[in-house]
Amino acid sequence: MNIVITGGAGFLGARLARTLLQQGQLSLAGAAPQPITRLTLVDRVAPATDLMADARVTAAVGDLNELLKPDRAQTGAIPSDAAIIFHLAAAVSGECEADFDLGMRSNLDATRALLEACRALGSAPTVVFASSLAVFGDSPGQPAPPVLTDMTLPTPQTSYGIQKFIGEQLMADYGRKGFIRARNVRLMTVSVRPGKPNGAASSFFSGMIREPLAGVKAPCPVPPDTAVALSSPGRTVKGLIRAAEASDADWGPRTAINLPALTTTVGEMAAALERVAGKAASALIDWTPDPVIRKIVATWPANVNAARARELGLLPDDSFEAIIREYARENPQAVTLALRP
Amino acid sequence: MNIVITGGAGFLGARLARTLLQQGQLSLAGAAPQPITRLTLVDRVAPATDLMADARVTAAVGDLNELLKPDRAQTGAIPSDAAIIFHLAAAVSGECEADFDLGMRSNLDATRALLEACRALGSAPTVVFASSLAVFGDSPGQPAPPVLTDMTLPTPQTSYGIQKFIGEQLMADYGRKGFIRARNVRLMTVSVRPGKPNGAASSFFSGMIREPLAGVKAPCPVPPDTAVALSSPGRTVKGLIRAAEASDADWGPRTAINLPALTTTVGEMAAALERVAGKAASALIDWTPDPVIRKIVATWPANVNAARARELGLLPDDSFEAIIREYARENPQAVTLALRP
To answer: Which of A49, A76, B159, B308 is buried deepest, with most CB atoms within 10 A?
Structure first.
């Protein structure tokens, strides 16, 4: 089985790739497990060396919109035997808000081109689309309901959220037409991400933990009572794989499912950091407000009811403290402070 | 004030044009009424001669996607002084289901090109987008709720419905960004339309009344108990104009509003026809089922709660019999049977 991951050099894509290579097989849509013979990682940059060292891994490096132009044979982004495509590549929320055309190109045009490339295969491959909690939006004239379910009408208040929601619609129709098997999955805010800050407005949700653990100051640009719906990298990847493995009957309708979320506040996140690594860590959080980021984050509701995900056996993380300890365990080289037991 | 109507040679566009020319002025978004100095009708064919005879009318004739290519100066589809654009042009539901690419081009690409042309003006013109009841869809795995409100999550079960719902999302974001003033309006099934059948799956909702009144047989391809949410041409045009005239505060959120609907069944429609024109008329309805049309129509729920429209003073038609009589009054040349008082 050949599996494609767009955004395969990104943090989540690489983690998904490593998990898939490690498990070595996948039960596509409820069928018997098949060995993963090839993993095609599509991204602007080459995958990490550990991934490239695996004989099953192929890279398609370049601009996604260029790679997906109809004469695909040259680029190999969507190989003719692709059985599953995890579509994670996207411009992030902050970028899309700052540069409208970039967001439309990277998120809307690229998703449509990807779906066209999948349709052209004629084999109705399974597409798992990484949508986002950011489809939900809270605005003064239209407050989001207190709890968001799988059937809540999204009212996105960012271009990123609009583009993701449009992606869900395209997915649903390409699925209904039989061009693909559609799996729309809404990711929660992923924390703690290793590595460096990115252009996402949500980047600080990881940075405010990751940087202090490395002894480095980091901004938290929103007030302590800001609520957030979080998921660890591990649970997020689990959700993506479950989407590919679920049978059509277990999956249900082609509308998106919310992945499970741990609802907490940035104040509680800072307190958990202090429990794990002491005041030396929490004192490194810089609480200077950033009105631009605050405005974006404030539109993302935090209370998510993930009923369909629960039925698929997907559960939220136990606690944010557990998430921090998991991060520290997985990234020992990035933690310089001493941790409390 | 220069007003643009795409689909301006179509039935609804032409009726909107005549209504606007007759009233002569418009209160744009709650401002003081201004005279309508120019009406630009954009369509693949030239507008009717009565419209072209009005000195205020200009035509832009051609393929909409071609007319909207960035070098607009040559075509005049979106003049630099356009204050309001009523975007009615679309490929209809039956066409889009039969030809996926046609629908994507005519409904998604053209709407996006229109919004880009409006954004390029720099004047944030008001765009009234004719969305549709067809965004709602009933599917075996995801039945629509018994009553559809303005906040119901649409789950379109046709490509046309998906494309209209995506149009609503684009409208909302172009509005939020300040590129346009966005007015998303969901039209109900319009009946009785004069003229000829078209490719819409809903075409028979007019034909089953219009043709018998002219002494001609007409198909009703769905069972008598099929429910439908209807609006007369007059009420529909009223809703479009109200959308342009409502102030931002009166209008509310950028999500779409449902226009008011008279909920009835095709059996009741046939009975109303019999009350108006006797058995001579109702006997001309051919009840031979068409499974393709039935399948599409069956996904359109019929119980619509149009709360926002009601707050704007928009109400459904009184009865289907009143709609038939209005049609007969407005189109005496198309009625050959004697009507009962």
So the answer is: B159
pLDDT of residue B227 exceeding 90, the answer is: yes
Mean pLDDT of all residues in B138-158: 89
Other CB atoms within 10 A of residue A34 CB? 12
H or E element in which residue B8 lies: none
Per-residue model confidence as pLDDT tens digits over B123-135: 999 999 999 999 9
Pick from A23, A148, A154, A163: which is nearest to A91 by CA? A163
pLDDT for A198: 84
* In the predicted structure, residue A305 carries a pLDDT above the cut 70: yes
Whether the pLDDT of residue B266 is over 80: the answer is yes
Give the pLDDT mean for B49-74. Answer: 91
The CA distance from B279 to B263, in Å, is 23
Domain assignment present for A56: yes
Give the residue numbers spanning the domain of A160.
2-189+231-258
Do the chains contact at A252 and B141, CB–CB below 8 Å? yes
The CATH number given to whatever domain includes residue A247 is 3.40.50.720
Cβ burial B282-304 (10 Å sphere, 16+ → b, else e)? bebbeeeeeeebeebbbbbbbeb
The answer to whether residue A75 scores a pLDDT higher than 80 is: no
Q: Which residues of A touch B156 (CB under 8 A)?
A: 169, 172-173
- A166 contacts B170? CB cut-off 8 A: yes
Domain presence at residue A200? no
Closest chain B residue by Cα to residue A135: B169
Residue A65 falls inside a structural domain = yes
Residue A153: name the closest of A24, A301, A33 by CA.
A301
Q: Is residue A332 part of a domain?
A: no
- Residues of A with catalytic roles: 160
Instruction: Verify whether the Cβ–Cβ distance B156 to A170 is below 8 Å.
Output: no
Domain count, chain B: 1
CB contact under 8 A, A169 and B156: yes
β-strand partners of A40: A4, A58
CA distance B141 to chain A (A): 6
Closest-CA distance of chain B to residue A168, Å: 10
Chain B residues lying within 8 Å of A154, measured CB to CB: 153
pLDDT tens, position by position, B7-17:
999 999 999 99
Nearest Cα residue in chain A from B149:
A153
